[in-house]
Amino acid sequence: MTTPQTPTGAELRRGPLRPGDKVQLTDPKGRLNTIVLQPGATFHTHKGYFRHEELIGKPEGWVLTNTEGVEYLVLRPLLSDYVLSMPRGAQIVYPKDAGQIVQAADIYPGAVVVESGVGSGALAMSLLRAVSDGGTLHSIERRADFAEIAKGNVEAFFGGVHPAWHLHVGDFADRVGEVVAPGTVDRVVLDMLAPWENLAEAAAALRPGGVFCAYVATATQLSRLAEDLRADGRYTEPTAWETMLRGWHLEGLAVRPQHRMVAHTGFLLTTRRLADGVTPPDRKRRPAPAKEDVEGHWTEEDLGVRPVSDKKLRRTMRELDKGRLSTQ
After folding, report:
1. Hey, how many other C-beta atoms are within 10 angstroms of the C-beta on 286?
2. Does the pLDDT at position 186 exceed 90?
3. Which candidate among 95, 118, 288, 298 keeps its CA 20 to 30 Å from the CA of 169?
4. Residue 55 has pLDDT above 80, yes or no
5. Residues with Cβ within 8 Å of residue 312, at least 6 apart in sequence
6. Distance between CA atoms of 109 and 53, rounded to whole angstroms?
7. Measured on CA atoms in the order 213, 216, 219, 224, is the torsion positive or negative?
8. Nearest 5 degrees, angle CA 258-CA 261-CA 263?
9. Which is more confident, 51 or 291?
10. Per-residue model confidence as pLDDT tens digits over 135-172
């Protein structure tokens, strides 16, 4: 007698619904509930119930009617659905930012990637999807409890241990040199409070041309990181941006932006590793080094504001005077 094997990987997201599958229920008002199918279990609300057995063996996209006539659309949750509803110990990297990281950092199948600041594992899942089974993702998390939560979330989503994933507990600066050889990493992704403290270790791990990507929450962090990258001398000129996501209401002719949007969640910054011994070219326009004036305030030059010459001011005043005369 042949023992049936437990489906893993892509098989978990194909075929009929099975015991142990997570399914997403959408009611007529668009409200979502996520349940794990178990024989003998029921799903109850104040408007009736249904037995899980009524879904087991059914295909995705099924519509089930409960005892009170309420209809539910039944689908397996997408990755973006899963990360927003999974147990979390730390703030997650939102799907809109994870997608930007995968694209901007050019995470590709077979890549060797190191991430640090694993949190609840949301970004790790997107990175694992991108590197695929033939790649390698080393995730370094300084807190053992967060690492345990991430491990549970990742394995629950992929149906077991992902062959490309290696989870390590400790500080990035201490562990990265232990888990990868110098100059062998294609991409480094940092989600931490002070990523500028780990630029030397990241540079040592990255191969020439490798991508360094950081996710920071505040403009102060972003400014500090950019200036330290320039001062380090082993990276190209950094690029930074944020992404804001606004949904649209679609109801007949009432097509308009939704009143709520996922606005600022964090800033993303990317740069490339230069070859050893190479000096990065100077920028054509570079703001003055950050400093404070005698009163302890930042100057306009510190903030990158271009100075306005007296000549330009006089010309502007003449143009204003001409405009006043022409209207009289």
Report:
1. 10
2. yes
3. 95
4. yes
5. none
6. 38
7. negative
8. 155
9. 51
10. 999 999 999 999 999 999 999 899 889 999 999 999 99
Q: Which residues of 56-88 are buried (b: 16+ CB within 10 A; e: fewer)?
A: beeebebebebeeebebbbebbeeebbbbebeb
Strands lying side by side in the sheet with 267-272: 165-169, 136-141, 112-116, 185-190, 206-216, 267-272, 239-241
State the alpha helices, DSSP H only, in the chain. Answer: 79-85, 95-104, 122-131, 144-158, 172-179, 199-205, 219-232, 310-327
Sign of the C-alpha dihedral computed for residues 14, 100, 105 and 148 taken in this order:
negative
Instruction: Write out the DSSP string of 165-192.
Output: EEEEES-HHHHHHHHS-TT-EEEEEE-S
Based on C-alpha coordinates, what's the Rg of the chain?
A: 26
Tokens, residue 49? 């119930």
Amino acid at position 50, single letter = F
Cβ(13)–Cβ(33) below 8 Å? no
User: What single DSSP character describes residue 10?
Assistant: G
308-313, Cβ contacts within 8 angstroms, sequence gap of 24 or more: none
CA gap 119, 95 in Å, rounded: 14
Taken in order 240, 138, 123, 148, is the CA torsion positive or negative? negative
Task: Return d(Cα 216, Cα 225) in angstroms, integer.
Answer: 9
Model pTM above 0.85: no
Q: How many CB atoms lie within 10 A of CB 35?
A: 16
What is the identity of the amino acid at 258?
Q
Task: Assess contact for 211 and 240: CB atoms under 8 A.
Answer: no
Q: Contact at 8 Å (CB) between 215 and 192?
A: no
231 is written with which tokens? 């001062």
CA distance 112 to 98: 17
d(CA 153, CA 143): 16
